[in-house]
Design goal:
Blueprint: E1 2-4, H1 11-14, H2 25-31, E2 37-41, E3 49-54, E4 60-64, H3 68-79, E5 84-89, E6 105-113, H4 122-125, E7 133-136, H5 139-144, H6 148-155, H7 158-164, E8 166-172, E9 175-182, E10 189-196, H8 205-219, E11 223-229, H9 233-242, E12 246-256
Parallel strand pairs: 10-11
Antiparallel strand pairs: 1-2, 2-3, 3-4, 5-12, 6-11, 6-12, 7-8, 8-9, 9-10
Helix pairs in contact: 6-7
Amino acid sequence: MIQINTEQVTDKFKALFDFGAPAGLRAFTVMEGMTSGQIFTDNPDNPTWGVVRESTYGTFYLGGTVSAEQIAQFINDFRKLGDEVLAGFWPDDPNIQLLPKQRDYEGTVYDFIDHPIGEGLDALLEKIPEGCTIQRVDAELFERSSDRDMNITMYGSKEKALEKGMGFFLLRGDEIVCETFGGPAIRGMFEIGVGTQEVYRGRGYATFTCAHLIQACEQMGYQTYWNCNSANIPSVKLAQKLGYRTQKAYTLFAWFKPSAQGG
């Protein structure tokens, strides 16, 4: 196993990976040096397999032909790098049979894609919530974001997050009520996420705020992408309300970090 940097990633290496895999765009943002992660292969010049791990969530992606033994070793190694190791696969992916049988978690996650460009947002944007203002994220708002640290981990720095990402915050006075932030754009696709303060949930604030970000992305020529666990019913319903036409289920597997007792 050889670890390489983004400057060593070739088109031949990228071709080993499927952009249409579950949350597959995240692997490509790592390979393009847009987000943080680790990249491994058997041969940088003539690769037959590759593994990409994004640092924020700890998800790894397989490219080419990787053996069950190699996958098990990767998982054991990756568990030492973060709190958990994740991997997602479509139900018919043969790689599932190669995964270690002992897993700490197995659940269903949804990919939402294919939002109709320029359609379905006007009704969601026509009335701003009473007493609120909407503002595109800037350096000051970014510093106050509940996801500040996560986004700095993802992008590598505040400056890079603001350069590569984009977001909108819903404010009530000086208070952040809801925030949506996403990116980076990769192959015309832009992943978005949202968070609403608990006391303000259930009022449609996330719908309004996300609609602003989706509209801004589409005006720049990007499609948007939404990903959430099937158990997160509010997020599922929000994606459906926002108008995504394709909802695809996949299985997410997780292996947690060993305990201090060596478990």
